[in-house]
């Protein structure tokens, strides 16, 4: 399946030569987001409002679509965390680049993530947020990689399990590119190995 398979007859997109294959199509994302929203609606039916906490920048697309699919009252907040700095691999130290602007005491909080991989950042976050007194803290991630299963992090809502490959699209980037793609695809190694 090529990236333009959902739009036959459309001209080739700028990114087509960079994408090896599509892992999760635009249609599959839309259907899974609706299914996750239905499950979350049911689980939080008795809440007076759910606070979605998205992790910049990768979770923005998923969080926006999820918020629109939910029928319960929601508020949106964002955090930015880094364990990489200028490195390609994690430094092992999590830094808060942007903290919450909202008091989460006695609130139901749902952390929204694009992909759960090594789990370092999320492991730190799931210790940090409870220290601020929320009623509950759960997680939803559109994607989960195999390493995440080894971390013991409880991701209550998962969209898709994907292989341990370099994926981009639907919020995920390489060097700040590809976030806007409506699907999740595997980036060709030639793109990032030549940089």
From TrEMBL:
Domain of life (superkingdom): Bacteria
Cofactors required: Mg(2+)
Tagged with keyword Glycosyltransferase: yes
Pathway(s) annotated for this protein in UniProt: Purine metabolism; IMP biosynthesis via salvage pathway; IMP from hypoxanthine: step 1/1; Purine metabolism; GMP biosynthesis via salvage pathway; GMP from guanine: step 1/1
Pfam families (alphabetical): Pribosyltran
GO BP term, example: GMP salvage
InterPro entries listed in its UniProt record: HGPRT, Hxn_phspho_trans, PRTase-like, PRTase_dom
Keyword set, alphabetical order: Cytoplasm, Glycosyltransferase, Magnesium, Metal-binding, Nucleotide-binding, Purine salvage, Transferase
Entry EC no(s): 2.4.2.8
A Gene Ontology molecular function term of the record: magnesium ion binding
Annotated localization: Cytoplasm
Family: Belongs to the purine/pyrimidine phosphoribosyltransferase family.
UniProt protein name: Hypoxanthine phosphoribosyltransferase
Gene source species: Stackebrandtia nassauensis (strain DSM 44728 / CIP 108903 / NRRL B-16338 / NBRC 102104 / LLR-40K-21)
């Amino acid at each position: 399946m090529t990236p333009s398979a959902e739009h036959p007859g459309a001209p080739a997109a700028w990114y087509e030569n960079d994408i090896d294959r599509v892992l999760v199509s635009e249609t599959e994302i839309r259907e899974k987001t609706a299914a996750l929203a239905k499950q979350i609606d049911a689980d939080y039916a008795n809440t007076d409002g759910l606070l979605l906490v998205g992790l910049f920048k990768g979770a923005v697309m998923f969080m926006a679509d999820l918020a629109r699919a939910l029928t319960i009252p929601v508020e949106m907040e964002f955090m930015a965390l880094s364990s990489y700095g200028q490195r390609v691999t994690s430094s092992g130290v999590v830094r808060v680049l942007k903290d919450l602007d909202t008091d989460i005491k006695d609130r139901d909080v749902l952390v929204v993530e694009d992909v759960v991989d090594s789990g370092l950042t999320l492991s730190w976050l799931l210790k940090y947020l409870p220290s601020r007194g929320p009623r509950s803290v759960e997680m939803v991630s559109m994607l989960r990689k195999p390493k995440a299963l080894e971390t013991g992090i409880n991701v209550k809502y998962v969209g898709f399990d994907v292989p341990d490959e370099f994926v981009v699209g639907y919020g995920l980037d390489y060097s700040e590119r590809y976030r806007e793609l409506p699907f999740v695809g595997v980036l060709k190694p030639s793109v990032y190995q030549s940089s």
